[in-house]
Amino acid sequence: MTKWHLSRRSLLLGASGVAVAGAMLGRPRGAYAAGKLSVGFWDHWVPGANDTLTRLCREWAAKEKIDLTIDYIPSQGNKLLLTIAAEAQARSGHDILAMNTWLPGSHAERLEPVDDVMKDVLAKNGPTNPVVEYLGKPDGHWRAVPATPGSQMKGPASRIDLLEEHAGIDILAMYPPDGPATPAAEQWTWDALLAAAEKCHKAGFPFGIGLGTTSDNVDTWGSLFHAFGARLVDEKGNIVVKSDATRAALEFAKKLAAFLPGDAIAWDDGSNNRWLISGKGALIFNPPSAWAVAKRDAPQVAEKVWHHPAPTGPKGRFGPYLPYYWAIWSFSPNKSAAKSLLAHLSTREAAEQLVAASQGYDIPGYLSFNDFKTWNEEGPPRGTLRHYPPTKDQILSIAAAPAPHKIAEQIYNQATITKMIARIVQGGDSIDKAIAWAESELEGFMRG
Amino acid sequence: MSRPEMAAPGAEKAATGDLRRQRRWALWSAYACLGLFCVFFLAPPIYALVTSLKTSQEIAALEGNPWLVRDPTLANYAALLGSSTFLRFFWNSAKVAVIVVAVTMVIATLAAFSLARMRFFGSTALATGVFLTYLIPETLLFIPLFQIFTWLRDLTGIEFINRWWILCIVYPTLTVPFCTWILIGYFSSIPKELDEAAIVDGASTLQLLLKVFLPVALPGLIAATIFAFTVSWAQFLYPLAFTTSLDQLVLPVGIVTNLIKGDVFNWGQIMAGALLTAAPPVLLYAFLMDYYIAGLTAGATKG
Amino acid sequence: MAQAAAIGGALEERGASRGGGLARRRARIAFLLCLPLIVLVLALVIYPAFYSLHLATLNKSMTRFVGLANFAFLFKRETFWMVVEQSVIFAVGAVVFKALIGFVLAHLVHRLPQRGQRAWRGMLLVPWVIPPAMSTLVWWWMYEPSYSALNWLLAGMGFAPVAWLGDPYWARFAVILVNVWYGAPFFMIMYLAALKSVPAELYESAEIDGANAWQKLIYVTLPMLRNIIAITVLFSLIVTFANFDIVRILTAGGPRDMTHVFATWAFKLGIESNDIPLGACVSLFMFPILGFAAVFILRDVHRRSRELAGVAA
Fold it and tell me: Does residue B266 or residue A42 have the better pLDDT?
C-alpha cells in the first residue's frame, strides 16, 4: 500500500499500522481499517476475574492505539466450542480466541503459528510444563500461546475431617499448610486411596469420582491410567490398549468403582462439585471451584477442604493438568497486533495479577510461575491451595497422551477410558471384552 | 364455541336421576384425571418457583423438604431484573420475536393465500412439500449457514455473524412452514362466495386479500402469530451458534451461558430466569387462547 | 388488469376454461405470492442441506473427496446402530405417549363446562410455552443425583432412590418423560381444536342410532380427527427425531452412549470431536427415515382430504 506513509508504529504493527495511516489520510478502509482487534476470551467463573484481564488488555490497547473489542465466551452450553467451530468454518470472526486442551491441535492448520512470540516468552519465563507443550505445539510449531485464565490442575479436594475420622488419613501431615509435602506424602498411593474410599463408603461419605464422559471424569481416570502405565495408543499411533498395565488399571478401577456413588456414571463436571458442597462426600477430583462455591453456600464444608496432589501409582504420581490457550486465526487481518497483545499477557506480572484475580484457580503453564503467593494465602482453611499448583514430585499429564493429537483428542472427547470402566462396572462386560471394545473404537479414531 | 355444552343439557333432559348421577360421576372423574395431569405438568414450574425463592445456601443444604422454602427471598429476581445484561437479553429476545413474527406472517399469508385459492405449476406439491422442510434439522444446517453468511458478508460488506438480527433471518425457516400450513387450512375454510362477491364489487387481488381475507381469517392469523412467537422465543441452537457477544444474546442462551460458569451453577437465578423467560408467552396465551383454538380449529382441520 | 387476474384467481375453474392468457397471468401472480416462501426455503434450507451433503463426502480434515466412505465407516460402527435404535425408541416412544396423553386430555377438557375450560386449558398448556432449554434445566435439577427433588418424594413414599440419569434404562425413560411433558400439550391443543370442529349433528345421529360413548369415539370422533392426528403425529415425529436440547442437557448421550439420538451424536462427532463430515453424515441419516414416514402419512392425508371433499361436493 502507501509505503512512503508508514510511521514507526505502523511498521511495528504491520497491517493495522497501514490502516492507521489510511485513516489519517481520511480514507477508511473497511471493517478492520482503524487498527482493530477483536478478542474472544474464556468467560471466567470467578466473579471479577474477567475485569483484571480486561484491564490488562485495555492498558495495552491504549499504549498501542488499537481499537480493541473483548467478548467473554463461556464454555457452558458448548458456547466456546460452537463459536470456534463456526468461526473456523466461516473463516471470520474474532482475531484471537481462547481454546482449551485439544483445540489448538485440532485447528492447527487454521491457526497462525506463534513460534516467534513463544521464543521471546520462553526466553523470559523459562519452559512450560510438558502438557502445555504437548497440546500447544502439536505439529512442531506453537499454534497457540498458553493462557493463564482457565488453566487448572485437577487433583483431589479432600475433606480433612472425614478422611481423618473414617479413613485414618491425616492429609495435613502429608501436605502441611506452611511447607512443602512431607515424606509422609509417599504413603499417598492409589492403594491408599482405594482403602480410604472403602472406609468412607462404609461410613456413608463415598468419594465423589464420576464415571461420566466430561473432562473432570476423564482427567481423573486418565491420571489413574498413567499411574499404572496403561496407554491406549502410543506416540506413533499404534493401538496398545491390550496390555497387562491396562488390565491392572481396569481391575483397580473396578474395585474403586464399587465404592463410588450409585449414579457416578451419569456425572458431569458439576456433579462432583455438588457432591462435595452437599457434605455427602469425603473426596473429589476438582480444581478449587467446588471449594470456592462451598465458601459461599456451605462455609462449614469449605473450611474443611484441602487441595493436594493425586495419589501415586506403580509408574509415578501423575497430576492431571488442563491448559487453556489464546490462539490467532490464520485469517485474522491483524496478526501482528494480536501477537503483540498475547506477548503482553504472557509476562510474569500479568500472570501474577490474573492468578490473584482468579483467587488461585488459574495455574499458568510456565514452571517458574508456580511460586505466586496467592496460593499460599487463599483460605479458609488457610493454605488449602498451597499444594494445588504443580509440585516437584508430580508428572503433569493429560488423559490420552502420548497418542498423536487427532487420535488423542477423540479418545479424550469420546471418553473412551471412562466408557471402558462403565462397561465393566455397569454393563457387566469382562475386562477383556471392554478392552476389545476399546480397540474397535480406537480403530475408528484412526480415520484421517 | 357453544357446542360442547350441548351434551350436558341433553343429559339434563333425560332427567332420570341415575343418568344424572352417572354424568356427575363422569365429570368428577374427569376433574380428578385432569388434576393428576396438572400435577405432572405443573410440578417443574412450581419447583422452579420454589427454588427461585431460595438463597444459594438453602439450595446447597441437603436437609429438609426441597419443595418448601424456609427463608423466602426475592434476591434472585432482583439480581436478574437489576442487571443490564439480563434486560438486554430480554430486549433482544423481544426484538427478534416481533420481527420474526412480522416476517413470518407476511411470507406465510401471501403463500397461503396463493396456495389456498390459486393454482400454478407445482403449487400442490409446494403446499404439501413445505411441511417437509422440517425434515432437515438445525444441527445439519448451521455449519453451511455460516458459510452462506460469510459469503454474503464478503459480497455486501455487512457482518452477519454475531449480530442479533441474524436470528430474524434464520428463524423464519422454523416458523413459516407450519404457519403457512395453518393458514392454508384457514383460508380454505372461507367460503368462495365471499371472494366472488368481492370481485363482483371490483376488488383487486390485493384488496381481496387485505379487505376480505384478513379480517375474516383473524383467528387463523392469531393462531399462526402465537405459534411463530412461541417458536422464536424458545430457540436455542441457532442463537447459541450464531451470536457470541453479551449484548447480542437472546434469553435462553443468555441465561444458560451466563448463570452457569464452567462447573459452577447459580441455581436460584437460573430458575428465576427460566420463569421470567416463560412469562411473556404465558401471558400471551392467557389472553389469546380462545383465538388460538378457534384459529387452529378451522386451520388445522381443513389442511 | 389486476381485477381481471383476481377474477381469474377466484373463479379458477371458469377462468381456466375461458382462455390460456388469463390462466397464465393468474398463475404468475400466484407464483409471485409464493416467491418469498420459495426463496426462504431454497436459500436457507435446501441449499445448506445440499451443502451438508457435500460436506458428508469429504474426509475428516475436509481436504479430500471420499465419496461414500464416511457412510461406509458409520455402518461398521456399533455405536451408530445403537444410535439409530435409540432415536427410533426415543421418537416413537415419545410421540405415542404425547399423542395418547394429548388425546385423553383433549377429550376430558372438551367435555368440561365452557366456564371452567379456560383455566384448565391454560394450566395444561404451560409446559409447551416454557422454552424447552429452560424447562429441561429444571427437570435436570429435579433429577440431579445429590439433590434430586423427585427422589425426595420417592423416599417420602418409601421407595428407594432412582438413579434417574445414571442407569441407562432410567435415563432413557427420563429423557422421554421430559419430551412427553413438553410435547403433550401441543397435541392436546390441536386435538381440542379438531374436536370442536366435529359437527354436533354427527354425535346426535349416532346417539339416535343407539351408539354408546366408545362407539361414538371409534365411528365418529376418530374418523373425523384422522387427518389432524396424522399431521400432528408427523410434525411431532419430525421434531422429536431431530431433538437436540433435551438429550443434550439431561444426559449428553450418556451413560455409555445409551441415550444418544441422531442430533446429539452428530454434535458429539461433528463439533466436539471436530469431525464435521462424519457429523453431517449422521444428521443426514435422519432424512431417509423420516422422509419415508412423511411421504406415507402425507399421501394418506391427501387422499383423505380428497375423499372428504368428494363427500362434501
Answer: A42
pLDDT for C28 equals 85
Task: Give residue A89's pLDDT.
Answer: 80
Collect all residues with Cβ–Cβ distance below 8 Å to B216 and sequence separation of at least 6. B190, B194
Cell reading at C66: 471420499
Model pLDDT for residues B70-115, shown as the tens digit of each residue: 888 888 898 888 888 889 999 999 999 999 999 999 999 999 988 8
| Chain C touched by B173 (CB under 8 Å) | yes
Nearest CA in chain C to A422: C256
| DSSP code, position A310 | P
Q: CA dihedral in degrees (C70, C71, C72, C75; nearest 10)?
A: 120
CB A425 within 8 A of CB A257: yes
Domain residue extents for chain B: 3-52, 79-302
Report phi then psi at A87, rounded to 5.
-65, -35
- Min Cα separation C129/chain B (Å): 6
Which of A110, A205, A265, A284 is most worth mutating to test chain C (most C CB atoms within 10 A of its CB)? A265
Topology (CATH) of C70-312: MetI-like fold (1.10.3720)
* C-alpha B8, offset from chain centre: 33
Instruction: Show the domains of chain A with their CATH numbers.
Output: 3-150+323-374 (3.40.190.10), 153-321+387-445 (3.40.190.10)
Estimate the share of chain B in helix, then strand, then coil, as percent rounded to the nearest 5: 80, 0, 20
Cβ pair B260:A74 closer than 8 A? yes
Domain B79-302 has CATH 1.10.3720.10: yes
10 Å Cβ neighbour count for B215? 9
- What integer pLDDT is reported at residue C14 of this predicted model? 43
Mean pLDDT of chain B: 82
User: Which of B199-208, B231-240, C180-189 is predicted with the least confidence, judged by mean pLDDT?
Assistant: B199-208
Q: Where are the domains of chain C?
A: 2-55, 70-312
pLDDT for residue A272: 86
Torsion of CA B110, B116, B117, B118, to 10 degrees: 80
